[in-house]
């Protein structure tokens, strides 16, 4: 047995070399003397030792490539766009994917740059933000048509970030802040206008009520004077004498009201000495008439008692 051991070891090694394992979602490329012969799927597979070899393995999983593209918009603003492209190799086109492209990532990146720099310069900066989905669809459409011949399927293209120049962002923030301040000022102005209108309405209503109160007060005073004259007429005092009595009474009431206030002064400024004398004479006459009326009222009351 030991004599055959040198021959058994190479045979065992050859048998072991004929087996190879392929992982899930992966395809192995098998070549014979450098020529493609077949593909092997996941699991345990066999090949001819020495003659055949596994040239490579291709993943069928969905992959993602992130590309940052710098370009200029229609309004001459430089902006950086981050494009994320999700792609996978088609099972039936593994041969094309493995042999036709040396570096598929570079190829996809080149197409992304071409599409973005063809679409974005047609838009102003605001439209780039608003129409980023249109840019993504254009990238996906162009890539899908171009990469299908190479065995690649473009699953999705996304514009994940739009980054303008720092000075442009500061300017946009200032514009936004100015617009907000403008709107705030408009709201404050509207509020002040409403407040002024409401104050004017309240003041007008107050004046109306105040005038109504004064009118009611004067009406009641007039009614009271009328009743006073009627009462005095009933005791034999004529209207002229009753009016004089009421004037004197109001005069005394006024003086009493002034006297109730501390540090109050009453100044009577006649237009002329004659006017002052006349006013003094009128007051004396009023006092005399008042005394006469009082005496008359006493006599009337005495007669009633008798």
From TrEMBL:
GO cellular component assignments: membrane
Protein location: Membrane
Cross-referenced SUPFAM superfamilies: Band 7/SPFH domain (SSF117892)
Pfam families, per the entry: Band_7 (PF01145)
Domain Band: 17-176
Membrane topology qualifier: Single-pass membrane protein
Family matches, as PANTHER family: STOMATIN-LIKE PROTEIN 2, MITOCHONDRIAL
Protein name: SPFH domain-containing protein
Species of the source: Urechidicola croceus
């Amino acid at each position: 047995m030991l004599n055959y051991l040198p021959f058994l070891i190479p045979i065992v090694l050859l048998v072991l070399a004929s087996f190879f394992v392929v992982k899930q979602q992966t395809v192995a490329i098998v070549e014979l003397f450098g020529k493609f012969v077949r593909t092997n799927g996941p699991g345990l597979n066999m090949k001819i030792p020495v003659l055949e070899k596994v040239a490579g393995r291709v993943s069928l999983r969905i992959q993602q490539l992130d590309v940052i593209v710098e370009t200029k918009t229609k309004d001459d603003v430089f902006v950086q766009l981050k494009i994320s492209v999700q792609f996978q190799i088609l099972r039936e086109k593994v041969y094309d994917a493995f042999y036709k492209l040396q570096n598929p990532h570079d190829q996809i990146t080149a197409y992304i740059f071409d599409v973005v720099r063809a679409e974005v310069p047609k838009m102003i900066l605001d439209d780039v933000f608003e129409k980023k989905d249109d840019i993504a669809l254009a990238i996906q459409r162009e890539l899908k048509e171009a990469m299908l011949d190479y065995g690649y399927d473009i699953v999705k293209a996304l514009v994940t970030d739009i980054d303008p120049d720092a000075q442009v962002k500061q300017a946009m923030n200032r514009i936004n802040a100015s617009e907000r301040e403008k709107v705030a000022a408009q709201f404050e102005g509207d509020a002040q206008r409403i407040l002024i209108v409401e104050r004017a309405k309240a003041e007008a209503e107050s004046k109306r009520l105040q005038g109504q109160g004064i009118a009611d007060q004067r009406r009641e005073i007039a009614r009271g004077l009328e009743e006073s004259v009627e009462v005095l007429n009933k005791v034999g005092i004529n209207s002229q004498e009753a009016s004089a009595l009421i004037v004197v009474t109001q005069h005394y009431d006024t003086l009493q009201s002034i006297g109730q206030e501390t540090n109050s002064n009453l100044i009577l400024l006649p237009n002329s000495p004659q006017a002052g004398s006349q006013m003094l004479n009128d007051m004396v006459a009023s006092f005399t008439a008042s005394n006469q009326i009082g005496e008359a009222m006493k006599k009337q009351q005495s007669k009633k008692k008798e």
